[in-house]
Amino acid sequence: MTGTAIAMLHTVPALAAPLAELAAEVRPGARVLHFVDESLLQDTIAHGGPPPHVLRRVVSYASYAEESGAGTLLVTCSSIGEAAELARSFTRLPVLRIDEPMAEEAVRSGARVGVLATLATTLGPTTRAVQRAAVRQEAEREVVPYLCEGAFEALRSGDPARHDRLVLDGFRELSGEVDVVVLAQASMARIVAEAAQGHDAPGVPVLSSPRSGVAQLAGTSARTGG
């Protein structure tokens, strides 16, 4: 039987705490279960995209979540977002992508959508997510991808300041070409406040996935049991 708990699948351990705080805002009192598996991202990077065994493991995590009393599994890594979508066909538990609401909002925000990423394996999936959102909304949109070379490696090596600097440099360059900028990874949300100050690109919205992605949980039906 499924329950009222929320399950989250992370590939970056540091995201667990801030996303749990956001979940408490939209589902006060709900129990949050965290599954952390860095190898899902590592294997996706190594293969240039999610290999079949990553999909199988996402399905397994959905099963674990359901058995543990969760009513929803939120996949918080955009690099494996397309595996999350495929997993929906193999599990009864609702599987959500953290970046889907962001993609929908980006399409509503302008004709030229910039996608900023620090990983090539995230740039492609997020770009395609925006393109699919445009199709759903029957809107013609041009998507402009931009890869911040070296930023992910800086964050992974323990240099968040360099990560933020490289992401901001990318934002400044990309924002001059588009109507809205999408931050492809939840880990990039740290620079939203600075980027949104508008000193470099007045009026260009900056969208990140954590808040809108977690907000989906407010609309999930809390089913009894567990």
TrEMBL record:
<dbReference type="InterPro" id="IPR053714">
    <property type="entry name" value="Iso_Racemase_Enz_sf"/>
</dbReference>
<feature type="region of interest" description="Disordered">
    <location>
        <begin position="200"/>
        <end position="226"/>
    </location>
</feature>
<comment type="similarity">
    <text>Belongs to the HyuE racemase family.</text>
</comment>
<feature type="signal peptide">
    <location>
        <begin position="1"/>
        <end position="16"/>
    </location>
</feature>
<dbReference type="GO" id="GO:0047661">
    <property type="term" value="F:amino-acid racemase activity"/>
</dbReference>
<keyword id="KW-0732">Signal</keyword>
<dbReference type="Pfam" id="PF01177">
    <property type="entry name" value="Asp_Glu_race"/>
</dbReference>
<dbReference type="InterPro" id="IPR015942">
    <property type="entry name" value="Asp/Glu/hydantoin_racemase"/>
</dbReference>
<protein>
    <recommendedName>
        <fullName>Asp/Glu/hydantoin racemase</fullName>
    </recommendedName>
</protein>
